[in-house]
Amino acid sequence: MSSTPSTPSTPPTSLTSSTSSNPSTSPPSASPAAPPPPAASPAAVAGPAPRSRPSRLGRGDRLFLAAVIGLPLAALLVFVWLPALASAALSFTTWDGIDLSDIHWTGVENYTQILTNYPPFWPAVRHNVVWLLFTALLPTPFGVFLAYHLDQKIRFTRVYQTAIFLPMVLSLAVVGLIWEIIYNPDTGLLNSLLGAVGTGHHVDWLGDSDLNLWAVLVASGWRHTGYIMILYLAGLKSFDPALKEAAALDGANGRQTFFRVILPALKPVNVIIVVVTVMESLRAFDIVYVLGGGTGSKPGMELLSLLITDNIIGESGHIGYGSALAVVLLLVSLAAIGAFLVQTFRKEDR
Amino acid sequence: MTTSAPRPDLRSRPPRRTTADGTRPRPPRDTGRHVLLATVSVLWLVPLLWAVYTSLRSYGDTAQHGYFSLPHSFGLGNFTDAWTQSGMPHFFLNSVLITVPAVLGTLLFSAAVAFFVTRFDFRLNLALLMLFTAGNLLPAQVLITPLYRLYLLIPLPPGMSDSLLLYDSAWGIIAIHIAYQCGFCTFVLSNYMKTIPKEISEAALVDGAQVWRQFFQIILPLCRPAFAALATLESIWIYNDFFWPLTLIETGDKRPITSALANLQGQYFTNPNLIAAGALMTAIPTLLVYFALQRQFVSGLTIGSGKG
Question: Global pTM?
Fold first, then answer.
């Protein structure tokens, strides 16, 4: 968590430096322009190419390369980036969603509306923050904790790993139904257990708006722990054991070795799990949708992602609201995405 | 990962002293560790086992004795009921018809992009890679409003969809899966292709091999391990996806099984045994893939998480 606020400030510098240093990786493919190119005869017609590289490629080759990059790029731009940008544009308009000529520019009206006059907005923001804090404070450190213990060269690690990671393989919709069976106030495991113990309370875990978010968070944490555990375990496996040896020789105990030696050295993995935690908290949708009864947001469980779909699927759809909410979500996720990109592509600099 | 493999022997050699009866005395800490990990493992399996237990009991049994009771009858009745009454075979088929083309398309497209950025560096390498990777990280809800409208505007020929639109058709779901998942796979595959020596394609070029042959006959076969990992991971992800069909397919009959589950929930709201059976049946394909190909699944996940 503590590393996210600092990372968004780095993208500009590190991105520019990485693009400027990028040509340094290209010479390997650029330099062999000199060897006799047998297939270059048709390409020679293309004349003095601005860059020497493509000149040894025939027309068929160039067409192929154009398709190889063009088709996926077109798909990405049309289906992903165009909608993302259109969301931003639509957030400044009012539109009934039917006729394109009915789009009217309204400036920041949607934003002032959702901030001041849209009751579910602030609860949703609060719930997203609670979601993030809960996930960052419990399942994520617990996953790291389990990974640390699984990395200790003991037997049965694969069995433990398989069991704890299992929920991650299930779809969130299935996870939702599995927990529905546990939380059901009349027939669920939880109330049956409480009843057997003697506290004859009839708790409506998913209906009570003070409780239901926490009930959903437990279900989500059940899945998240295994995910973090696997990611961190891979990081630990790549950790140089010599460092641990050295720490042990210096008299460090297990805890000191972990916090003073391993944790700082695994910064790349730390950033990844922070980003994963933030992204999962922002994206949370399926499990809340299913546990909320499959009808959109429910009191106590409003989330930004659910409000967005409320505003496009429902009959009373309000495209502008949905888009403004999407932009809020987009801005927060861009910070996390930036941190991820900086972390993963930084090594390209070297 | 590779460098750490030989080392554990070095590390664990000192304490490894065999006693007379041939067993190794283990440090006492390991017992605590096993207790901890075993407890967590069991706790983690409880929700799933409870669903299995519930699904195996008949509704009458649970209604009479309560859910938290010993079983009076065990059987697969709920599974056969869910299978026949709610049209599950049909929804499974929908899932296959969406997942298979979407996975193949994603792998082909992302291999193409990775091939381009790693073999033919046109100074866009990093920018392209970031564009694709970032695209995959955008929350789906950010895209959905305009995408929904876009799908209503794109026509399809009658043979492809009876809605005549990308909206409410399997093609639309396949398209968004490919476009959206491409980012992740491109990222993983480009990391993988970087490890293939440049000399291989240089040699092929000098021999006069055309670029498409380089791609299909040299690079793609060399990427087989990465494809195995990604195919496993993407099949599970795409099969498990709930959001796109929920928002982009209007006709309940056309939805894949994961999204159709929500209907089952509404339809049999009062019968948890049947819902448990339906949910578990939906999970069976992913569980089988997971148990059979766990290594591929985990390695796909971890190389993709920035270690590559």
Answer: 0.81
